[in-house]
Amino acid sequence: METKPTEISSSKMFGGYNKRYKHLSPTLGCSMNFHIFFPPSTSPSHKFPVLYWLSGLTCTDENFIAKSGAQRAASSEGVALIVPDTSPRGLNVEGESDSWDFGVGAGFYLNATQEKWKNWRMYDYVVKELPALLLENFPELDTSRASIFGHSMGGHGALTVYLKNLDKYRSVSAFAPIANPINCPWGLKAFTNYLGENKADWEEYDATCLISKFNNVSATILIDQGEDDKFLKDQLLPHKFEEACRKVGVPLLVRLQPGYDHSYYFIATFIDDHIRHHAQALNL
């Protein structure tokens, strides 16, 4: 298969189109799928800013497109949604599917340094390969105007990608992010296997650690967190990120939402706020 993306499905929604593509990824060494939601076009020359969504553990490029309802606000705000998969697939690395929180569907948006997991380079895929692919193949997208958001593992990905690339993204937001992975079971498992034993390497993919280094943040960071989320106290640790932001004066809005859990029902409830948050930053 060519590296050039091939359209594999298209569905009209809120005047725009959900389109799914596959392509061969040199970064990951396998075939990958991604979705784009194109808002309705106002004129042939109009270019849409892009908003990347990073999904959580066990997800593919389909969960957000099918469950979030984000297309309604994206359509009215004129923002294109870009939704990649969460890990390489089909490489048949031994043990890649043994657990739901590591391996397939659990790329953690980092570049693995351990030989066995050398194809797990989702950080480079999201930050470098995918934007270059969009720029080359979709003239209707303005990739120079970009923002990023995500959920859980994808919230961790969005925060770390944003902080390390403040020149590339206008804004960031997250739903129930894994905010301090070096101090939670999910993070310990993933980082040990992907990155080895050196804790300094782990800190390069921890938003709570990164915020002290990369704090020239202009747009307020928005985080929504359900108070009835079963992962809140031991896995997500948003209060640690909040403390770190306060120390360096980074603008942060954490909204604790009573009664909400970790699911897409929670995401769908507040997704419009996030789309508008990014649309404002993208200068529409």
UniProtKB/TrEMBL annotation:
Domain of life where this protein originates: Eukaryota
GO molecular function terms noted in the UniProt entry: carboxylic ester hydrolase activity; S-formylglutathione hydrolase activity
Record's catalysed reaction(s): S-formylglutathione + H2O = formate + glutathione + H(+)
GO biological process, alphabetically ordered: formaldehyde catabolic process
Transmembrane segments annotated in the record for this chain: none
InterPro entries, per database record: AB_hydrolase_fold, Esterase-like, S-formylglutathione_hydrol
Active-site residues, record numbering mapped to chain: 152, 229, 262
Key words, A-Z: Cytoplasm, Hydrolase, Serine esterase
Protein name: S-formylglutathione hydrolase
Source organism of the structure: Nicotiana tabacum
Lineage: Eukaryota, Viridiplantae, Streptophyta, Embryophyta, Tracheophyta
Gene: LOC107764314
